[in-house]
Structure formats: structure tokens, C-alpha cells
Amino acid sequence: MKIGVSTLALAEHSISEILEYLEDIGADYCEIINEYPMADVEVTDSYSIGFTVHAPISDINIASLNDRVRDASVREVMRSVDLAADIGADVLVVHPGLVPFLGRRYSGRIMERNMESLREIVDYGEERGVGVFPENMPRLEGPLMRDLDELWGAVEELDTMATLDVAHAATMGYGVDEMVTGRVGHVHLSDNDRETDSHDALGEGSIDFRGLLDKLEDHGYRGVLTVEVKNTREIESSIEFLRRIIH
């Protein structure tokens, strides 16, 4: 398994500064969150680090019942597919859509729209040679795919893989022995108290990461473990923690 780091904690820096820093601390991958301030990044091939891409999180809803919002959201995610293809990233992480307050009575149709949009994005990813891996959401009102069974069912229907966000799953009450199936194609890691998605450094909360890695190995996972924390101290301590427990 390889160690990746999200730009979540580094967005105030330029992409070249980020990549130099990640190379210095020995990370294997950088996961670019492709929205402001990294909506239009240019990456040269002068770095040894690999890439994954996270589609925009803010200001979009791929499950919107408003056709204009939905179509614009899908186009924005497809721009991230293009970025991933251009920089040689095999993985694009995408969030599912949302059920807004006034949309609760139409939740069934919103779920259908979510799958329709994901199908378009997955198909476009296949055309560009990029795996589009939907991510499970934390315990918040609104997001779809908070339940892991919903995520597994969706990726099976789409014939793709999933991004397992371990911290999100923990807020939903899942233990690490319940989090892993053969459909896991990418992994996000941060720690928490199993209540709030606080993006703490690994080892500073209550998640059993040693048990998690054992389950991933049992299922033959050989992908990237992407650290999603809040600052450079937490990045470095999380990488040190992972190095101690990766077999």
C-alpha cells in the first residue's frame, strides 16, 4: 500500500510547493482537491510523486432536481476527470449528491438522479482511462451514501470501485471489520471520536487503524491510503503512524 496526502491541509500553497513538500516527507501520492484554489492547476512531470484527484465538493449537487444545477455539477466533475487523465491519475474521487431541505419528499427521485449522474461520470471516466470511485459520506443530514450498504450497491450497479472514507464510516457507527469489501478501490484516512468528522491526525482518535489495515490486506488491497487532515503537523504525524503499522 502507498501513502498519499490530500491538498486539504495545504491549499494555501502553490502546487509546486505542495509537491516539493510531499516529496521531502516521503509521500507517494498527492490527492488534488480540484476546486478553488486548485481549480486550474498545472503539473509538470518533474516530480516523482503520483496523483489521485478529488472532484469538487463545494457548490455542486449531481443529484439536483434542478436540471441546470445538475448538468453544471456533472460538467464540473467531468472537468476533474479530464484533469486526472491529463496528469496520469488513475483515481477520481466523487461525492454523491444531496437531499435538500425542500427535497425530502422527493428523496426517491433524487436518489435516481444521483445514479444517473454517476453513470454519466463513470462512463466518461472509462472513455478517458480514469476510475471514478464514489465516496461514502459522514453522519450529516443531506448527503446520500452515508450507509455503506448504499455505497456498495451503487458501485456494484455502476461496475466501478468505491472510495472508503474510514472516518466518515466511523461517524455512522461502523467498526473497521464492517468497512471493507472487495469493492474498495481507494481509501481516505483521518481520525475522530466516532461522532464528529473532525479530520484529526491518525492515532489521536478512536479508530482502529491496525485492524483496518489487516482487513484491507485480507481483501488484497494494494492501493493508496490518502491522509486527509488539517495541517502539516498532522500530515507528518499521520505518515509516521502509518509507517509504523503498514506491514
Q: What does this molecule look like?
A:
This is Sugar phosphate isomerase/epimerase. Keywords: Isomerase. Residues 20-244 form the Xylose isomerase-like TIM barrel domain. It comes from Methanothermobacter wolfeii (Methanobacterium wolfei). The protein is an alpha/beta fold and 247 residues long. 38% of the residues lie in helices and 15% in strands. The chain contains seven helices and eight strands. The chain has helices spanning 15-24, 67-87, 107-128, 148-158, 166-171, 209-218, 232-245, and strands at residues 2-6, 29-33, 50-54, 91-94, 131-134, 162-165, 184-189, 224-227. An eight-stranded parallel beta sheet has the order 5-4-3-2-1-8-7-6. Helix 2 runs parallel beside helix 3. The model has no long low-confidence stretch (mean pLDDT 96).
Radius of gyration of CA atoms, rounded to a whole number: 17 Å
Q: State the low-pLDDT regions, or none.
A: none
* Portion of residues within helices: 25-40%
Overall outline: globular
Mean pLDDT: 96
Oligomer: single chain
Strand order of the largest sheet: 5-4-3-2-1-8-7-6
Q: What's the helix count?
A: 7
Largest sheet: 8 strands, parallel
Derived structural class: alpha/beta
Strand content: 5-15%
SSE series = EHEEHEHEHEHEHEH
Distance between the termini: 9 Å
Q: Please provide the count of β strands.
A: 8
